[in-house]
């Protein structure tokens, strides 16, 4: 007798071979999806890597050859772009092969992406990080993200919102675990650069915007580090040699890649799918009175021909755009807005905790808002996101500017609370959209339709970071220009070893920054750093207004798109 399972050598991974037996407890499935989402959700803690990667060569500060913040943020963007693309193209494949096969492939891509990224960091080859973490890791994100959604919707037809909230909750909470773990791994693998001495004891010259020092071994490029910069490595203010030391980023990437791969493989083998036409014992579908919830089904290819799909695409895209750019630079933003005005409170540890709390509210918001939508409806839930979100984004510039002019903890608290509520709704939008799709298009192909809708996430992964980095760079340039105009040229030349007319070179080499200009600015000069993100927040609020109207005008899908009517049409 041939006991081989259908599907060839990898048949044990396919959907038809993981059908649950009678009496199977459906509550055993959510832990698998949460475990996978906790692994891939660490992408939301990407900003923890920003400081290390932006000074991989200089270590205590950014050297001329270090990667810029904007180029590092785009790694996160590429990962999100490929998340959406992989989810879109794998939608039909997921329906065919099932969640276990997709989860296993996701483990290889996500874990392997970290390992390739580690090699890129050690070789200082940015393109390898883009390829590993961005492209391959991003594909792993997309496959891992969609693998449990349609499965849990079928296991929990009585609580669609709660089911998708569970499926996606782990993704929002991934950074809650990853942020402190990444900080810890970076700290244990970090190594301080070579210290030459205090600024006054070492002769430093400026050539082409770079700083150099004469040593017994010859002229070497150096960084003049402040006490705060050196303290992170247990050092003191002074001169450090560029290219020595280690931020620990490469070893951290390698460790995470191995751990994530192992966890995701184990979780993938916990997946089971319900038998055909299965429903919870004792549960019968209620007569549906909500016009926005259909009992019909729409084919995956037909869904793209409906205006409802594109309205929901726009809603998701703008809701994500408004939050994803901020997530990518969260740690940096907190430090820049309040680090100078409240240095005793907003330390590096405080900024890391801020990233952690973003993850907590992102995760809790996914379960809270998705479950709430079971009672108030998906449309009303999205109205809450857009109306409340617009008001909160408009409040952030006020809290930032007021805190700069009058350092008071109340403004920090206001900023903190506003952003936490925003991120709860950001996560809630992701968790509620699959149930919204099931209400609108039925459950027959909801996994595939959800995958295609996630291309909105890809678009937002470009729009969000592009907006926040571009507008921030414009604000930084204007701030440097304004500050330089107020500073005495002699003081400038003494501080940077070059005249003001070499400003462009000095800025390009990262020798001149807003923080260093503030050290020699006239007394009473207001630090412009806290207001660098104001314009961005106004733009994000505007996007949510547009999304509000897209949701307001959303109507049930026309009957001509229903699957049974399509089946009745004669073949062409």
From TrEMBL:
**Organism superkingdom:** Bacteria
Q: Which Gene3D superfamilies match?
A: MFS general substrate transporter like domains
Q: Which Pfam families match?
A: MFS_1
GO MF: transmembrane transporter activity
Q: Does the keyword tRNA processing apply?
A: no
Stretches of the chain forming a coiled coil according to its record? none
The record's keywords, sorted A to Z, are:
Membrane, Transmembrane, Transmembrane helix
The regions listed as transmembrane in this protein's record are 27-47, 67-89, 101-121, 127-149, 161-181, 251-271, 312-333, 345-369, 381-403, 409-437, 535-554
Instruction: Tell me which PANTHER family the record gives.
Output: MAJOR FACILITATOR SUPERFAMILY (MFS) PROFILE DOMAIN-CONTAINING PROTEIN-RELATED, MONOCARBOXYLATE TRANSPORTER
By what name is this protein known? Answer: MFS transporter
The species is Paracoccus alkanivorans
The taxonomic lineage of its organism, from the top, reads: Bacteria, Pseudomonadati, Pseudomonadota, Alphaproteobacteria, Rhodobacterales
